[in-house]
């Protein structure tokens, strides 16, 4: 239960950071959702190619990469 809460918080922070990096105007809530989903997607994709992110910093980096990717995809869809 605690790991789920920590994962959601880390995904939210990752989404917020990705929103700043990508200069996103999607809104804070959507960026947080993209951070949570992006962290899960990026973690799975990196796991498939043999890259594992351990610890809080690793999870945050993975979440930011995934959220940036999802923000980019959302921008493509909105056009």
What's this, in brief?
By secondary structure, this protein is mostly helical. The chain has one domain (2-78). It is 82% helix and 0% strand.
From the alpha carbons, calculate the radius of gyration and give it in angstroms: 12 Å
Structural class: mainly alpha
Order of helices and strands: HHH
SS strand fraction: under 5%
| Biggest sheet features | none
Characterize the overall form: globular
Please mark out the parts with pLDDT under 50 across 5 or more consecutive residues, or reply none: none
End-to-end distance: 39 Å
Number of helices: 3
Look at the structure and give the mean pLDDT: 85
Total number of strands: 0
Which features does this protein show?
mainly alpha, 3 helices, single chain, 79 residues, globular
Q: Would you give an account of this structure?
A:
There is one protein chain. This protein starts with a helix and ends with a helix. Helix 2 packs across helix 3 (55-78). It has one domain (2-78). It has 3 helices and no strands. By secondary structure, the protein is mainly α. Helix content is 82%, strand content 0%.
